[in-house]
Please model this.
Amino acid sequence: MVKNHEEKVEVSALFFDGRSSKAQAVTLTLSHGCVAVHDDQGILILEQGVALCHLAPPLGSAKVELKTSATAHCLLEPDSAAALAHFFPTRKGLLLVDFFERRWGLVTVALVGCLLFVWFFIATGIPFLARQAAYAMPSQAMTLLGSQTLAVLDEQFFSPSALPLEQQHQTHSLFQQVCQQLAVPSCQLELRQGNELGANAFALPSGQVVMTDELVILSQGQGDEGLQGVIAHELGHVTNRHALRHVIQHSGIFLLISTLTGDMGSLTSVAASLPMVLAESRYSRSFEDEADAFACSYFLDQGKSCAAYGELLMLATKGRNSDGLSRYFASHPPTSQRLEAFHALHNSTL
Ligand SMILES: [Zn+2]
Model:
């Protein structure tokens, strides 16, 4: 029941005196800045200044609380509360919540909007921020990360290279040649026996590339271009900071924020994750495509094609079937898809 006579509003309510849980049907009257509570016999139970009362914001069809003293309060139907609302200061934000609460269509649209935003943030926002964080990391930190990661990999997987010294020198000079042609600063080759990691190569954040003897042996017979392609591919991972971006992207939002804000303590988490990420070669397809495109552009810039690199991929894929050696290529996208991408890149430059 709502009666409104200009400066006076009367509504029905349930009254709780704060001493017992018993509800009492009452009439609330607001006039001249005062709230008066009368029982069903018309006897005045409580009188209070409006300034000392607090009307809770409406929330859908739920009853609304009017606090009339430190202990006593009334519960009002939403339309009764609406009739009293202009006597009390209101927060517009809460009125907006009530507006949405009463419209399920809008709530559904808002929910779908939220889910789309979360999906967009995970699919695009986190990779973008991870990229920013990876490029914001100072070079001293990258060097430290690289040496720590290599130490763990050396301890867990590798043993010193057993390649003949001459072959080691040839591989080092080939590596330096590719580095100079691609203008990648401070890059360095580390040769190791891969053991259980087989034919493999890893790009460390510091610019070091670890290549296994098995991969060097596998590339024999392909001329220099096969191995040059692998080196260029790994330098593509270095240049694009894929290892760091992968770890930051998959370590959760807290590491992302702490790396972005320059919290060097977060380096510990990155350093702990990097060796396993590299050992398992778990880069995303887009990172591999980026590194392949980098390798292909290396050949195309010299007026060559990516064919030799593609042939090495084919050989390694066959090798994987027969001796299970080529884990490096097993961890990458299917060879046929990569070869198609090479052809597309080659044709786009003609
Ligand atoms: Zn790769």
Notes: The domain at 2-91 is CATH 2.30.29.30 (PH-domain like). The two ends are 83 Å apart (CA to CA). The longest strand covers residues 8-16. The mean pLDDT is 79.
